Amino acid sequence: MENPLLLFPQLNISASKDKPYYKVMKTEIKEEPHKTSKPGAKQKRNRLSLLLQKPEFHEGNHLGKPGNLTKAASVSPEEAVKWGESFDKLLSEKAGLDAFTKFLKTEFSEENIEFWIACEDYKKSKSAHELLPKAKIIFETFIQKDAPKEVNLDFHTKEITSQSMGQPLRSTFDVAQSTVYRLMEQDSYPRFLRSAPYLSLLQGRAPARAPLRRRSRSFTVSDFQGVRPDRTMW
């Protein structure tokens, strides 16, 4: 039997022409997975979270390393009593801020104190050119819709904060920070004073480990409107 390639020489020519074509296709298939894809929303949020944690952003950050939260065990009962005098007194002392932050973590609402700390750091910016990048990070991390650590703010507060983002000032987050401060003072702070770890500090014992609780509903400003003040305290 004669060789079919001799009878149909075009078959051999076609095969030789197709061979480079398959090589090209094979190369393209191999290279396809290596194309760089654009970062998704999740990657963007992760980068923001990491950037927020950089030391240069949190210069003077009261939280320090996570291990520092356990230092509240060395607080004297006299110091702990002062924390119950006012919410401002609690946050003004590092040990008090650490203890309150640890408590908020058990309620899964630590974004409130993290936002407050970020605002305090923001107002300490040494130059105007630092304001824009810091403001952008704070806004995208805590305030904008679906932010990774979105705090509970009313529409009006979000709106006035958003409008000032084009040319941020040191006072850009003052309204939002005051709102979150007031919500913590009226909602989380009373529960902290009733918590087992705080009561243990008052008695001079190492604070008991607080049980994790489901995330509590964050109150809004409207929740406190219409509440009559207690005239007996005046």
From TrEMBL:
Question: Gene3D superfamilies recorded for this chain?
Answer: 1.10.196.10, Regulator of G-protein Signalling 4, domain 2
**What keywords are assigned to this protein?**
Signal transduction inhibitor
Q: Does the keyword Transcription apply?
A: no
* Source organism superkingdom: Eukaryota
Span of domain RGS: 86-202
SUPFAM superfamilies linked: Regulator of G-protein signaling, RGS
**InterPro entries noted in UniProt:** RGS (IPR016137), RGS_sf (IPR036305), RGS_subdom1/3 (IPR024066), RGS_subdomain_2 (IPR044926)
Q: Pfam family example for this protein?
A: RGS
Q: Which residues cross the membrane?
A: none
Report whether Cytoplasm shows up as a keyword of the record: no
State any GO BP term from the record.
negative regulation of signal transduction
Protein's recorded name: RGS18 protein
Q: Which organism is it from?
A: Irena cyanogastra
